[in-house]
Design brief:
heterodimer; A: mainly alpha; ABC transporter involved in vitamin B12 uptake, BtuC; 17 helices; about 80% helix; about 0% strand; globular; B: mainly alpha; two-stranded antiparallel ribbon; two-stranded antiparallel sheet
Amino acid sequence: MVANYVRRIYTNFATNIIDIPPRLLALLCFFILLVFPVTGPNVLLLYVLTYTNLIAIFAGSWDLLVGRVGQISLGHALFFGIGAYGTALLYKFYQLPMWVTIPSAIIIAVAVSILVGFPSLRVKGPYLALITMTFPLIFVSAILYFKQWTGGENGIAGLPSFFSLQFFVERGFSYSAALYMQKVSEYYMTLLLLLVSGIIIYKIANSKTGIVFVSILDDELASKASGINTTRYKLMAFAISACFASLSGAVFAHILTSIGPGGTLSVALSFLPVIMTVFGGIGTIYGAIAATFIIQILDLYILTDLVPIPMEWHPLIFIIIVIIFVIKWPRGIARFVVEDVLKELSKEREIEERGKHVWKKYKKKKQEATESAPED
Amino acid sequence: MTLIENFLITGALAGAVYALLALGFTLIYGVAGVVNMAHGALFMLGAFLFFAFGPLGSFGLGVFPALVLAAIFVGITGSIVYVLTIHQIIRDMLAVLVVTIGVALLFQQVIVIVFGAVFGSAYQAVPPLLDGYQTFLGVRVPNSRLLVAVVSLSLIAIVWTFISKLKIGRAMRAVAQDREAAMLMGINTTKLYMMTMAISASLAAIAGIFIASSTTTTADPAMWLRPLVMSFAIVILGGLGSIKGTIIGAFIIGYVESAVVVFLPQESFLASAFTLAIMVVVLLVRPRGLFGRRIELE
């Protein structure tokens, strides 16, 4: 009975993941990330990877909105910032626990995204890109204006962490070990969050709704003519995207435990998902997530430790790579790996298997022929 | 009341420079359909080259030769950027946006590295064009700001006549109207776009020099964002691609900013938020801006 269940789960797993090379690759990458803390990295590297996990969610949410629906947003930091400030302000004034403040912040961000989405119903293309870019700037002005509540430039400090140091210290860890344990726990939590959000975003992008999204990207008038309420779907895309962007922002606020307008609402943060997505391949969700890891690892490990290059040259290298990618290779790196390399591999295997099948048939026929021959 | 006079004069002075700033942005959009996010970076490059060529920099030229040289250099840089990057992806708007953002960040980083290596720091004081001040209606106006406003207005007039009277200006308008038809009439669009980009970049550089030398008095590598956002606000207010709309939009934005600064000195950091809010409202009421071309129902 149990064995039966196990076998069914295993066959399910095998047919849905192991037999499909891109999914197997994704699983392998996830597994590498899962066992990574075993190698004993330092606290800083763990923190950076935790941040990378969150930025990957953020980039994925941008890719859903821009790569799949075509609503160009150059101010996605707005949602990240609302997530961070929402949870921080709710904690600061009402001392609510995190499991209340983070969902509330996400709900606020979704409400704002619907407000922000309204211009997108009226303006298109460059106008939308320019107008969305200004929203975080307006929000920063509001934060500076309401200094007495938001702390202005200095932001809000003293937010609770997900895993308190106290908890580990009480269980007999030394202070540094407790700090390490805290960072490891946060890393695993964000990794899990990335897995779940990534799968949800990917599933949405490839569901029936996702097909409608792509139809809006390709030809809005045609999808309108086919009876699709494009207004509803565009607002829906904004809301879904804002939901995940604000989730990453809210979690980021509790991991850093202090936030300010510089880290959560800056223009650089708005451009980050653009760079990641373009590098990975726009419109493929997984590309954005993979590119986030590739760029962060290149930036903070390979170019700092293996081939040391001065820090201020790093952005230069990435920007040049991205520009070359957009011009010469707009498909992106992840799409290249998944659609060209892995598809070729699976095609080869398919031919081989088909060949085996044909070979078996041929052998069988031959056997039958030899068996039937003596009778004559 | 000196307050109202102050408001009127600062608004006009700001409006003239903003018009110059946004003119290049709207020109390249109107002619080539390129939303050039690197416009602010060209603005910044102008200010830094002016500093480098000028009396405080390593070349030690006078302010006016430095201004002209910087403008020419940035113009050439603009057309090189066009040929190397934008020209190859001009049909894809998202790609143009991403690439020009990339170019802007690239210039920022190059300035940080080069000026950090040569001058020790990428934060530099920019010399004023002129010293002294005049008094109008009881308001003290620095000579350099006055000069800047006058030169800006005359440059705008030159560009206007260039576009409306000269043959090449007519070619620009033809390409703006219908690219394919203009190509069939024998207009070399690539050359024309390069030329437009060069003019647009030079205008941005001159605006950068003017604003850096008369208003902010410093140049820093992150200074490209604010002028970029200002040009959005102006151009969207006036209508993307419309020169008349841009000039009127620039004066509206200039007056709004000076109203906030003069009447609410405590909240002067909100000036840009006010202008952006006005932009959003205008866009919601009239999506194509005040004088924009009609956006086709796709």
